[in-house]
């Protein structure tokens, strides 16, 4: 699987998330990479619409991990506030990757060394207009094919 597309609204972004969710196997890791405000959580909300748990979705920036109950268990992680793989291990992030269900990880490039293969990756960017977003989705079974990137926000934060 390898797709590239643009959305022009939050509803289009959610629809793209719903479409990806429909293609996933029963257990899957989906790793998200992209700057602040580029639609990662809206995309995830769309995925959770497919799994019948969208009303539960909030960005877990402060809680780090949220679990939603729907047609399957969906675990939603946001690694923005974590700095090291040691912090990620302390909260048991690596254990989520060995379980079943759907695991959605925002700011996944921070945990690249821990992410198992195969996985799905979603890279997101701001588009040319204020409302436009660009996405690339790839099924990755070899690390050299990864599309995860270090968002500008993280590079600026580390400076």
Verbal overview:
It is a single chain. With 159 residues, the protein is an alpha/beta fold. The chain has a single domain, classed as Rossmann fold (3-Layer(aba) Sandwich), CATH 3.40.50.300. It is built from 5 helices and 7 strands. It has a 7-stranded mixed beta sheet with strand order 1-7-6-2-5-4-3, with helices on one face. A hairpin with a 6-residue loop joins strand 6 and strand 7. The longest helix has 14 residues.
Give the topology:
Blueprint: E1 2-7, H1 10-23, E2 28-34, H2 40-50, E3 65-69, E4 73-78, H3 85-90, H4 93-96, E5 102-106, E6 119-126, E7 133-140, H5 152-158
Parallel strand pairs: 2-5, 2-6, 4-5
Antiparallel strand pairs: 1-7, 3-4, 6-7
Helix pairs in contact: 1-2
Question: Which tags fit this structure?
Answer:
single chain; 159 residues; alpha/beta; Rossmann fold; seven-stranded mixed β-sheet; 7 strands; 26% helix; globular; disordered C terminus
Q: Order the strands across the largest sheet as they lie in space.
A: 1-7-6-2-5-4-3
The third-level CATH topology is Rossmann fold
Q: Order of SSEs, N→C? A: EHEHEEHHEEEH
Identify the CATH homologous superfamily: P-loop containing nucleotide triphosphate hydrolases
The coarse silhouette is: globular
Radius of gyration: 14 Å
User: What number of domains?
Assistant: 1
Strand fraction: 25-35%
Describe the main β-sheet briefly: 7 strands, mixed
Structural class: alpha/beta
CATH 2nd-level architecture: 3-Layer(aba) Sandwich
CATH class category: Alpha Beta
User: Distance N terminus to C terminus?
Assistant: 35 Å
Mean pLDDT: 90
Number of E strands = 7
